[in-house]
Specification:
By secondary structure, the protein is an alpha/beta fold. The chain folds into two domains: 10-191, Rossmann fold (3-Layer(aba) Sandwich), CATH 3.40.50.880; 208-319, Homeodomain-like (Arc Repressor Mutant, subunit A, Orthogonal Bundle). It contains 14 helices and eleven strands. It has helices spanning 22-38, 92-103, 114-120, 136-142, 167-180, 182-191, 208-211, 217-228, 236-243, 247-258, 262-280, 285-291, 297-308, 312-319, and strands at 10-16, 43-49, 55-56, 62-63, 67-68, 77-81, 107-111, 128-129, 147-148, 153-156, 159-162. Helix 1 (22-38) crosses helix 6 (182-191) and helix 11 runs parallel beside helix 14 (312-319). The longest helix is centred in the C-terminal third of the chain and has 19 residues, at 262-280. The radius of gyration is 22 Å and the shape is globular. The termini are far apart.
Amino acid sequence: MPQDSLHTPQAVHFLILQGFSMLGLLAAVEPLRAANRFSPNLFTWQFISVDGEPVTASNDMAFDVQSSLADACQVQTCIVCTGYYPEQHFEQRIFSWLRDRAGEGCVLGGIDTGSILLAKSGLLRGYRATVHWEHLNAFREDFTEVHITGALYEIDRDRLTSSGGISSLDMMLQLISVQHGYPLAVKVSEQFIHERIREPQDEQRMPISLRLQVHHPEVVRAIEIMEQNLQEPLSVQDIAATVGLSSRQMSRVFQDNLDQSPSRLYLKLRLERARQLLRQTSMRILDIAFACGFQSNAALSRAYRSVYGYPPLQERRRMDGG
């Protein structure tokens, strides 16, 4: 229900960690500022870093903060902001601080890969949550106790998660709508030339037709089927039959539209997933092979080398700095 603007403003703290997404953070902060413009005194916000020192974003811009974990007080809502490498922040002092805030009844959120920090702290068990699409497969493999939707954003009770980027704007607009009414959320949205408040179920990624610059309907549908069946790959013949083509016809339209065969594209999709899991999880390579539809380490290694020029083990060593 809308709240009286004369009431004590809602304090929102943002815990920002090295390498965080600047766009994701600002897209969450700016709606609060704009809401205050139309209805003063609704929100205050403050930025926290682990040690109280400035934090550098993924775009190399330094960002000042107001307090450290130790000094932050009266934390009602805290949103964790990270970037490409959330595992760099797997520290007990951060996990403990977040758990303490949860024990005090704090609303907790995550932007981009911030939800991974919440999950690693054990604070998303039984909750719906989302994460940036590049980390979605690894998130699902690592945190089976979390209901991971892959949505644009999720607001589930006292947990807020967004997939990053502009989705943070939609999440905060939805929050403003719930707390202070839809008309205010619309006013804020219009300030940012944002034509509508997107729903959680809106897609994170561009449609395949735009992403791959292909508009042949059977090709698009075939790729959708491939992306949905990476762990247990279907035969090209079965996919062709499902989209209403013969195997020969599907090979021809793939060659005409994408300059590669269906089987080659399918292999690349499975290897892209393997690459994400190698980079973002500590899963055994054999388990990654199974998760991507390969029957052995050797099968994965042969395919990986054929596309990337080196084996999966070398990919992992690269990420470990070896």
